[in-house]
Amino acid sequence: VDWAYPRSVRGVLKIARTLVALVTLLCFVASNAPRAYAALAGMEAVITVLFLLLYLLRLDARMRCLFWPLADIFNSVTAALFLLIVCLFAIIIRTNKGTLAGGVFGLILLVLCLVDAVLLCKKISLAKARGRSAPAK
């Protein structure tokens, strides 16, 4: 277990994304918003928790079949696009205050997703060799 990860910037960002996604989910569920809104927030919470556990338990170093930071960037960008669409609909339609609050929290989650993607892009270098594909010296 990597106990330093939850205290790192990326770890705090993942925890914040999870908490904001849960708040967004609760707002959408409590306001009887369309189920697609709640499904998006719930999926984002679950996927973020899975990535948090992946990095916390150092499973990314054990499972080298996938370049996990790139998968995390893809998740963050895709989630940001879906959140932009859904949360703008929720804010524009705003059937009640819960839907409006869910839309606002969803936009905050969108910003957190973009910040996470930018931090991950700065972290990875595709030119750096990794694992078994590294050239022999």
Automatic annotation (TrEMBL):
Write out the coiled-coil annotation as residue ranges.
none
In what residue span(s) does the MARVEL domain sit?
5-125
- Keyword presence, Acyltransferase: no
Q: Which InterPro entries match?
A: Marvel (IPR008253), MARVEL-CKLF_proteins (IPR050578)
The record's keywords, sorted A to Z, are: Membrane, Transmembrane, Transmembrane helix
Q: Tell me the membrane topology, using the record's own terms.
A: Multi-pass membrane protein
Where it sits in the cell: the answer is: Membrane
> What is the name listed in the Swiss-Prot or TrEMBL entry for this protein?
CKLF factor
Gene symbol? Cklf
